[in-house]
């Protein structure tokens, strides 16, 4: 069964005894859920399999914005047993035009996606199957209230605990700034 950001938020609001949003607003709690997912990804990322459709003359293809590291690259995907490419530096004299190699250009910023670059140019209709380590989607654009949370169900209590902790820190901070008797 899949869960959404809104459902994790509801679990957290139930745990905070604030189901009517009397203390914490929905955007604040959903923000904490997204922070929890991002923090969770640091220690327990996910493995993603993706198939890329190739075009003639194109060697480089953008990777998912949450890409972290490559596990395997299968190209072409129709062969049995599968053919896996080997990672090789661009500076190697036999990188370009030698079949069997790839390179990851990892820009590590939000403006330029990481790319996989093949040593040979595929043709139209060929496909590349990649298996890579990825963060769980967590930002506002990719994890709206109704979007599915990719963190496995057995870890949702960790996400809820993170939200409870954030609420406690917020409450403590407010109390320190304006003490009540």
Reconstruct the topology from this structure.
Blueprint: E1 3-4, H1 5-15, H2 26-43, E2 46-53, E3 60-62, E4 67-74, E5 86-87, E6 101-105, E7 115-118, E8 127-134, E9 148-149, H3 156-177
Parallel strand pairs: 5-6
Antiparallel strand pairs: 1-9, 2-8, 3-7, 4-8, 6-7
Number-wise, the strands total 9
* Cα distance spanning the termini: 46 Å
> H/E element string?
EHHEEEEEEEEH
Radius of gyration: 22 Å
Largest sheet: 4 strands, mixed
Give the integer mean of the pLDDT values.
87
Q: What overall form do the CA principal axes indicate?
A: elongated
Residue windows where pLDDT falls under 50 for at least 5 positions: none
In DSSP terms, counting alpha (H) and pi (I) runs of 4 or more, how many helices? 3
Brief summary of the model shown:
The chain contains 3 helices and 9 strands, in the order βααββββββββα. The protein is elongated. The protein starts with a strand and ends with a helix.
Question: Key terms for this structure?
Answer:
single chain; 181 residues; alpha+beta; four-stranded mixed beta sheet; 3 helices; 28% helix; elongated
Structure description:
The structure is a single chain. The protein is of the alpha+beta class. The chain is built from three helices and nine strands. Strands 3-7-6-5 form a four-stranded mixed β-sheet, with no helix packed on it. The protein has a three-stranded antiparallel β-sheet with strand order 2-8-4, with no helix packed on it. Strands 1-9 form a two-stranded antiparallel sheet. α1 crosses α2 and α2 crosses α3. The longest helix is centred in the C-terminal third of the chain and has 22 residues. The radius of gyration is 22 Å and the shape is elongated. 24% of the residues are buried. The model has no long low-confidence stretch (mean pLDDT 87).
């Amino acid at each position: 069964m899949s869960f959404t950001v809104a459902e994790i938020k509801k679990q957290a609001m139930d745990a905070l005894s604030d189901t009517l949003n009397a203390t914490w607003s929905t955007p604040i709690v959903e923000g904490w859920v997204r922070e929890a997912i991002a923090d969770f990804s640091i220690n327990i990322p996910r493995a993603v399999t993706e198939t890329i459709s190739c075009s003639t003359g194109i060697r480089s293809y953008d990777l998912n914005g949450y890409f972290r590291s490559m596990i395997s690259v299968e190209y072409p995907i129709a062969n049995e047993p599968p053919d896996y490419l080997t990672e090789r530096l661009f500076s190697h004299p036999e990188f370009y035009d030698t079949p069997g190699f790839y390179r990851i250009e990892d820009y590590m910023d939000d403006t330029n996606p990481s790319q996989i670059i093949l040593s040979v140019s595929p043709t139209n209709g060929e496909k590349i199957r990649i298996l890579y380590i990825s963060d769980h989607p967590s930002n506002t654009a990719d994890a709206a209230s109704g979007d599915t949370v990719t963190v496995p169900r057995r870890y949702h209590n960790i996400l809820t605990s993170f939200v409870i902790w954030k609420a406690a820190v917020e409450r403590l901070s407010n109390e320190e700034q304006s003490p009540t008797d």
